[in-house]
Amino acid sequence: MKLEQMTMLPAHLMRRCLQMVTVYFADELAGYEMTQVQYATLTAICNLGECDATRVGKSIGLDKVTVGLVVKRLHARGLLAISQQPGDRRVRLLTLTVEARRILEDVEEKVLRAQERLLDPLGPEQRSALITALRTIVDSG
Description:
The chain is an alpha+beta fold and 141 residues long. It has a single domain (3-119), classed as Winged helix-like DNA-binding domain superfamily/Winged helix DNA-binding domain (Arc Repressor Mutant, subunit A), CATH 1.10.10.10. The protein has helices at residues 3-6, 10-28, 36-48, 53-60, 64-76, 98-119, 124-140; strands at 51-52, 80-85, 88-96. Strands 1-3-2 form a 3-stranded antiparallel beta sheet. Strand 2 and strand 3 (88-96) form a beta hairpin. Helix 2 packs across helix 6 and helix 3 crosses helix 4. It is globular and about 55 Å long.
């Protein structure tokens, strides 16, 4: 395959977009020491309420191992409280701490700005088409 062909492959272009938004996210959230996956995890728990890691993973498309590692890091930072489910000590229930809620409130605009930076080259119709196409791909998996 020629380089020109490879650089037009959808997977390559999606990886490049991920690289770009990762830089934008880190730039916008400088000082918060938070990754996109950590933000997604906290947002999921905020919306789901007290829940287990399996439910969090399913809601944001993460496997059990990755969710476990993210939860461990967030708990160590004091952003998650972990308790055992009454009646089933194997199930660990996750809740946000006050600090996590404060951070989510502080960074929401910054997260949206990172997304805006990624989409800035596109007009409204292109943005809508891109989101629709990506949602279709994700939903098919």
